[in-house]
Amino acid sequence: MGDGGILVAIDAAAREATLFAAIFFLLGGIDDLLVDLIYAVRRIGVALRRLVLPRSEEQEIAAAPPIPIAIFVAAWDEAQVIGQMLRSALGRFDYPDYALYVGTYPNDPATIAEVARVAELDERVRLVIGSNPGPTTKADCLNALWRALRHDEAAEGRLVAAVVLHDAEDLVHPFELRVFADFLRRYGAVQLPVLPLRHPDSRFVSGHYLDEFAEAHSKTLLVRQALGAGLPLAGVGCAIRRDVLGRIAAARGGMPFDATSLVEDYELGLAFRAFGCDCVLARVPECPGGRPVAVRAYFPATLNAAVRQKARWMTGIALAGWDRTGWGRPGDLGDHWMRVRDRRATLAMPVLAIAYCALVLWGAGLAGHAVAGTVAASPSPLVQVLLWTNLALLGWRLTVRAAFVTRAHGWRDGLLSVPRILVANYIALLAARRAIAIYARLLAGSAPQWDKTDHQFPDAGQGAA
Length: 465
Fold this sequence. Notes:
Number of helices: 14
Distance between the termini: 67 Å
Order of helices and strands: HHEHEHEHEHEEHEHHEEHHHHH
Helix content: 55-70%
Strand order of the largest sheet: 3-2-1-4-7-5-8
Mean pLDDT: 89
Largest sheet: 7 strands, mixed
């Protein structure tokens, strides 16, 4: 094949790759636009109905009678942060009746020692050492905490009213247990917003989590609620009524958390409806006009750590999760739609890779034509319409994201959210490759493991409420 034939092949490949990617980008853009429209309609409806409380929501929560709450913290290889987290939580919680159950592993003496130091000074901390060496799965560790709770309930002759889930790196909010006590009077499970902290040394990798959670916990979960779709839990800052967990445990052979799951929180959220449980995202201001009562934490600050975390989420939700959770009730179109959105990464990542290949091909073709002194063919009118439409949808998507990030974290991060979309795409591409490898090992019979990342607890005062 001569130079002319090579150029013809490059041009043809560029056109086909562009058309393929443009069609799927259009579908994804319309999908996102529909979510935005539903959110806008919901906000307008709330404004028109004037659903404004005559007094601050914080005052109403303060009036809610306290209920006994058990807080589960699963900890594998968390010696660096678990002591700080527990001391911080004990000092911050503005609530009279709670206990912290911390799950550890027999082959993790450093974490055990850190928890034991705090437990010796405060009887509200309960050190639980599981029977299985780690790492297993987070769900397996949570089941060990469930067994310990059941044992304590039998010994003390009283049941807790709710179980709250937290991670070892979480900075808790002083009012969150009061929010749970209030909302659990009406709902079976409650999720607080998660507001990641941007690591000072990682403006882009750590920062892209701010962008994703700002939209997810300010818009997407509210749209899921409006559609009546299953509401996945974040695994932190969420509370479940004790009777609901008991029903789930009874249906699962005694344990409420599926020890074979990589994303037990996501799957549990989808399963609630089958057990007659309503789950809600509680966006409650800490004071009139103030920030929401939320969980704050550092998310991975390095590329490798972010890829590992995203790969676990992608494997558990979009790959293995598809096999495990299937679909919702027949005819429940809103729930089906949201599950498709959860799993679209399986298609979005190949499309994104093809789109980047198309850019390289167009660049190579233009360079080749410049050297050969020929004119490169322009994209067809159809492709041009698709490209301009996708550009408009991309502009809208970036504007919406920047608005939500600005609202949650300020205008500087709102502006940074635009270039951070490239970082997010790069991380997602690398995570997809890793997720496929993990999923292949699971299909081959490997036991799922807790592929956690190293954590850092916020410095004193950072993110303080």
